[in-house]
Amino acid sequence: MAIQYIADNSALQDVVNEISKNDEFAIDLEFDRNRYRYGFNMCLMQVFDGNECYIIDPLSNDIDIQNIFTVIEDPDIQKVVFAFGEDLRLFHSMGCFPKNLYDLDAATSLLNFQPASLTKLIKQVLDIEVNSSSQQSNWFRRPLTDDQLHYAADDVLYLLQFKRELNQIAEEQGILEWIRQENRIFNHLDYSNEDHNNLIKDKDKNDLSVYEWHLYCKLMEFFDEVARSYNKPVYHLAGKKLIQDLSKNPDKAKNWEHTKGIFARIKNTTFKENLLQAIEQATREADAKNLSKTKKASYNMSKEDYLAMRREQSRINDLKDRLIKPIQNKIAEDFGPHAKSFILPNRLAKEIVAGETELMPDYKIHLLRKYSNELQLDLSEFI
To answer: Left (φ > 0), alpha (ψ -120 to 50) or beta: where does 198 sit?
Structure first.
């Protein structure tokens, strides 16, 4: 099948006009998340409408990828996808909220397929070998190689056929409505406010005092701004270990020109002066707040709080073992172990007994009530 490479707005509008006529199309993205450049970036969009395969280049200077967002958000046209979680986050960060998704990954899980890549599932279900050699490509590079183009196309070419096969199996097993309910959840998700760089994590507090933690956070913000200016991930400039060392011993910055393991273009006197200014400002703030240089930044619970937490964990685990585990076993017996892990994973089991569930589809509630009645388990407090 010929692949149409779309790199200008006129051609993109033709694509929009064509796929708007259909009731479904397959879509996938190739993206980069702080691997080769700064931030979370769409590098390619692949669309297949059953007749034509379009490889759309959002990095082209002659294209505005937002021109296709309206049809992606159209609730009357189904978008067939596979494991679309990260793609959805990227769309939301760009202000696009896809509607009417059909995620084949959820469908295969409900049908008790062993978790596997799309390549392996297509081979298993359709007996078709597809190309996987360019999976780890640098998708920023232009021009794209023939291998990259064919790999990208393969990500969408078989999704519509795959969906038809799965729907037939699901209909035979009576769980087609379960798949529909799972896919409707996508309409209610919103990842637009997520921090996709996620530079500062709680685990980074280890071995840092409250004072040093303040310095560390400020230095990470400083390096993040510099990384943005160079359009590079922060770790391309300096590793976290180095920034932690600077937080513990700011005087090391005075020897910056001789520091190993840093980006060559920031290994100079000008950058050192800016770094020293950032450190000085951060230390002034820490001093003004009277932050402790001895107290650990990682929160240490009091003995009473720790014992209370352990009691609550023990209570939840006991409820899970008594009330949910027998239901998990029944689901595994009736629908298979992989379906069980999707329908009622341990994470959801704990959320149920802790009263923290959100967006649980109706079929799961029905199953919980059905099996709790059969097993004479009282879940009335939780569902």
So the answer is: left
